[in-house]
Amino acid sequence: MGHKLLDKLLKENIIDNKEKYYRLAFSYVKNADDALDILQESIYKAFTGIGKIQNPEYIKTWFYRIVVNTSIDFLRKNKKAVAVDSDILESHIKAEEDLYEDIDLHRAIETLKPDYKSIIILRYFEDLKIEEVAEILGENVNTIKTRLYRALKLLRVQMEENI
């Protein structure tokens, strides 16, 4: 497949999903300017590495992985704590739960280790399938399932302690 067609598909994917990619970056850095920088760097990395794409069907997953890795690299480089902004998460929760329960959930998510937090964000807030989460994070499906189970168990314990 030619680079021009891949460039076009990548451009369309970024435009169609820009809010999701921004939210993902923001969920790691909790800062609008940093999230925009991460998104810009991710776009640059994607266009310079577009030749690595073997199957155009995986462009979305491939770009998610770039955003996740760029976010994690940014945090390592700047030694910032990984935190999920409760306002952003709150805007994505569609359940009609009590506001106090939402706040408790956000606080509980903030206590998770980055590996668990990434899985929760990608699976439930970005509504990706387990297989897509595994692909994005570069892990096998069983590892993701195990981490997701542990993350949900930890969240459940945190929520029960807050009752």
From TrEMBL:
One Pfam family named in its UniProt record: Sigma70_r2
InterPro entries reported in the protein's UniProt record: RNA_pol_sigma-70-like, RNA_pol_sigma-70_dom, RNA_pol_sigma70_r2, RNA_pol_sigma70_r4_t2, RNA_pol_sigma_r2, RNA_pol_sigma_r3/r4-like, WH-like_DNA-bd_sf
The RNA polymerase sigma factor 70 region 4 type domain, residue ranges: 104-155
RNA polymerase sigma-70 region domain mapped to chain residues: 17-80
Keywords, ordered alphabetically: Sigma factor, Transcription, Transcription regulation
Family: Belongs to the sigma-70 factor family. ECF subfamily.
Official protein name in the record: Sigma-70 family RNA polymerase sigma factor
Source organism of the structure: Lutispora saccharofermentans
Taxonomic lineage of the native organism: Bacteria, Bacillati, Bacillota, Clostridia, Lutisporales
